[in-house]
Design goal:
Largest sheet: 11 strands, mixed
Shape: globular
Number of strands: 22
CATH architecture of the largest domain: Alpha-Beta Complex
Distance between the termini: 60 Å
Radius of gyration: 24 Å
Helix content: 25-40%
CATH superfamily of the largest domain: Spore Coat Polysaccharide Biosynthesis Protein SpsA, Chain A
CATH topology of the largest domain: Spore Coat Polysaccharide Biosynthesis Protein SpsA, Chain A
Number of domains: 3
């Protein structure tokens, strides 16, 4: 087959004529597949992207009026806030009962950093059973649906790399008790990798070197996949967004949902009090009356270390990437099947074919991958809301095998969370001299969604946790 004259003109006009060097050597099937890749690239905007993000290194401009973002504290400070929080929680429960909420997990990554061969969501994180990350979310979603009398649809964004394996994992595990139709898989978009010379890199004679376009691409992928249409048909107004590496997350928190709705927010965010000025969390800030996140590496030291009169950090609010998003907001942002979020540059070692068609695996970074981040939609929202949560209850990221934000720390936090729930239910928990739990405890999310469920479980059965034991509580 011949490549269309229009596409060839766009490719040549953008200075990427090298992409067609091997066209005549490809089979017709390979040509069709390669043409589809090329058609997906917006060659009209490519030169501008290359100039701004590759040939030049973009700098984050810090607005002169940048200030810390306001937030609702985890613990209400006065009677007025207590009443507001009670109203918000009741509102959130009514929205769950009405089926107005769905869940969205971004799960396009592999478990490579964990030394694990497979989609990250399939990683066995349970402290005792090895329950997978996906199983934690699925069982929480199932229990939430049972508790509020309305099944939640779960949207899972995979990648071309792991979609097939992810779907197979769910099928092999009977969707963890969910109805198969409750789970909607869709695939993340891609961006071509770009060499430092401004040329698109090729993975093979008939293939671009493509990489996921970042979690900001989730919003456009929702539209292109038909997910937004399904949400509208099901009467879903609020999307509960979280990432696949955090099994401690509240998949649908009534208080957070209710406050989001009462505040009429387009997009809301969970915030954590930072442990120090340089903790590796994005900073919630305000400029020109718009909420935005400044990455920890970009916030100037004088702002990062700035203190209030009581000694607390001025820029205290850190982002764990947990959001609520109004469906109508996503529809508006993607109305023309296009979404203009800023790109973020990542220098990477990108395998490619050279001018001789030889496969090369560089030892040093040789190009740029461009990603968009979902938090860059915050400044586009007319109304936003930020609410503080205790990190011990909502945030245990699984990014590394050991150390900070690791498999080890995540499992320990899951044990501590489950132990704390049992203690509040009146169960005696053995603890070490330093206060840590002297046992491995794992409670099935099918049995316990929250502290109320833990109290009900303790009332139904006698629960004993012996020192040094492994205790698993199922339904």
């Amino acid at each position: 087959m011949n490549i269309s004259a229009e596409l060839q003109k766009k490719i040549n006009a953008s200075g990427q004529g090298h992409l067609l060097k091997y066209w005549d050597t490809l089979t017709e099937t390979e040509q069709k597949e390669f043409a589809a890749q090329l058609e997906a690239v917006d060659f009209t905007v490519l030169p501008g992207l290359i100039s701004e993000y590759v040939l030049n290194r973009p700098k984050t401009e810090i607005p002169a009026d940048l200030g810390p973002a306001p937030f609702f504290p985890a613990i209400p400070r006065n009677d007025g806030e207590k009443q507001l929080y009670a109203q918000a929680e009741a509102r959130g429960k009514s929205l769950l009962e009405a089926g107005r909420v769905c869940c969205l997990t971004v799960a396009g990554g592999q478990g490579t950093r964990l030394g694990f061969d497979g989609p990250k969501g399939t990683y066995p994180i349970g402290p005792v059973t090895g329950r997978s990350l996906f199983a934690y979310f699925a069982q929480n979603i199932k229990r939430c649906g049972e508790k509020y009398g309305k099944k939640l649809t779960w949207y899972i964004m995979t990648s071309k790399l792991n979609n097939q394996a992810t779907v197979a994992f769910f099928r092999d595990n009977a969707f963890f008790g969910l109805d198969e139709e409750q789970v909607f898989f869709f695939i993340q978009g891609t961006m071509p990798a770009i060499g430092y010379d401004g040329k698109l890199l090729m993975a093979a004679p008939g293939s671009l070197s493509l990489s996921p376009d970042g979690h900001g691409g989730t919003l456009l992928a929702l539209r292109k996949s038909g997910a937004l249409d399904r949400m509208r048909q099901e009467g879903t107004d609020i999307i509960s967004y979280f990432q696949v590496d955090n099994p401690l997350v509240h998949v649908a928190d009534p208080l957070f949902i209710g406050m989001h709705d009462l505040e009429k927010a387009d997009m809301s965010a969970v915030m954590l009090a930072k442990t120090g000025p340089f903790e590796k969390l994005g900073n919630f800030c305000v400029s020109n009356n718009r909420l935005q996140i400044i990455e920890y590496s970009d916030l100037p030291e004088e702002l990062a270390t700035k203190r209030n009169s009581d000694g607390t950090l001025a820029f205290l609010a850190g982002s764990p990437a947990i959001h609520l998003i109004k469906r109508e907001f996503v529809e508006a942002l993607t109305a023309r099947s296009n979404l203009k979020l800023p790109w973020h540059r990542a220098d990477k070692k990108i395998p490619f074919i050279n001018e001789k068609g030889e496969q090369c695996s560089p030892a040093e970074p040789n190009g740029v991958k461009l990603e968009s981040f979902i938090f860059d939609a915050l400044p586009l929202a007319e109304k936003t809301m930020v609410m503080e949560f205790d990190r011990k209850e909502v945030f245990a990221p699984t990014k590394n095998p050991t150390g900070v934000d690791s498999v080890e720390s995540c499992r320990q936090m899951l044990v501590e969370r489950d132990a704390a729930r049992l203690e509040k239910a009146g169960v005696k928990i053995p603890r070490n001299a330093d206060g840590t739990v002297n046992a491995l405890i794992e409670i099935s999310p099918l049995a316990v969604l929250d502290e109320e469920d833990a109290c009900a479980l303790a009332a139904q059965k006698e629960i004993t946790v012996a020192p040094g034991s492994q205790t698993v509580l199922e339904q």
